[in-house]
Write a structure and sequence with these properties.
Layout: E1 4-11, E2 18-25, H1 30-41, E3 49-53, E4 56-59, E5 71-73, H2 79-83, E6 89-94, E7 100-110, E8 120-125, H3 135-147, H4 154-160, H5 172-180
Parallel strand pairs: 4-5
Antiparallel strand pairs: 1-2, 1-7, 2-8, 3-4, 3-6, 6-7
Helix pairs in contact: 1-5, 3-4
């Protein structure tokens, strides 16, 4: 077992900050970190993603071959190696259509090993936006519509999101149950 890092990831461009703080093994590979981000934030892993670390774009190989962005295969990449010796923050992009941008920061490094190899969420705030809501502007419109019973789309959007949505909701125990399923 190696060192453990404390990371904080925050979804950008939304009011009422959506963030999570968690512990990860320092030798975590980017595909496992992607799964941890998905589980911790509440995304459903139904869209493409990328990491931007020290100016390098890492992603799963795309069989469609998106040529406009030069990307490196994320599968063999270990976070500590990608960050190098000095960098302590990086970007995580999810759902290129909706354009969800996140910033991740290495807040602390613990040189002592801890039992287990999993990822553990320590804290967080607010619910992740629903998938396919239209990015930050669509999310703002969605929140306004579901908060206003007189809004013409109020009923349709409530039905679309399953009957209700609480943007303040964060369930630490549920997040940790999801994180426990990830194979590191």
């Amino acid at each position: 077992m190696g060192p453990v890092w404390q990371l904080r990831i925050e979804l950008l461009d939304v009011t009422s900050a959506v963030w999570r703080r968690f512990l990860v093994p320092s030798d975590i590979r980017l595909p496992a970190l992607h799964c941890a981000f998905q589980a911790a934030l509440g995304w459903t892993n139904s869209h493409l993603h990328a990491f931007i670390i020290n100016g390098v774009h890492y992603a799963e190989p795309d069989p469609e071959g998106i040529e406009e962005i030069e990307q490196q295969d994320e599968r063999p990449v270990v976070l500590t190696e990608a960050l190098g010796g000095e960098s302590r923050s990086f970007d995580y992009l999810y759902d290129f259509g909706d354009g969800w941008s996140h910033v991740a920061i290495v807040e602390n490094m613990f040189m002592q090993s801890r039992p287990g190899r999993g990822v553990q969420c320590l804290a967080g705030e607010h619910a992740c936006p629903p998938e396919d809501v239209g990015g930050p502007p669509g999310y703002a419109d969605f929140l306004a519509a579901i908060a206003d019973p007189g809004h013409p789309e109020h009923e349709n959007l409530l039905a679309w999101c399953g009957g209700g949505f609480d943007p303040a909701r964060f369930d630490l125990a549920a997040v940790n149950r999801e994180l426990a399923r990830i194979r590191i």
